[in-house]
Design brief:
Length: about 90
């Protein structure tokens, strides 16, 4: 743990600093085809990409409707970013 210039607590991991976000109630499961998905508040998020220990998830309607809802997790499914604002 470290602090920002404004005194807020930050998580320091692999050289990256993460802000503490609101806790999101998520469920990790698999799709019919066996791909990992997250279920959150009645929405489905697909795994988009992985970089290092960080996994990026996007709303399943991202391509069709341009929904910008995202979740960023660590490999152990610790949520480090949760933007649960959907346009549908």
């Amino acid at each position: 743990m470290t602090t920002s210039k404004k005194g807020r607590r930050l998580l320091l991991l692999l050289g990256y600093r993460f802000n503490k976000q609101k806790v999101c109630d998520i469920t990790l499961t698999t799709s019919k085809r066996g791909y990992p998905i997250i279920l959150m508040s009645g929405y489905r998020l697909n795994k988009h990409k992985s970089r290092g220990a960080k996994i990026y998830w996007k709303c399943s309607t991202h391509l069709k409707q341009g929904c910008r809802a995202v979740i960023h997790t660590l490999e152990d499914m610790t949520v480090i970013k949760c933007n649960n604002v959907h346009n549908h």
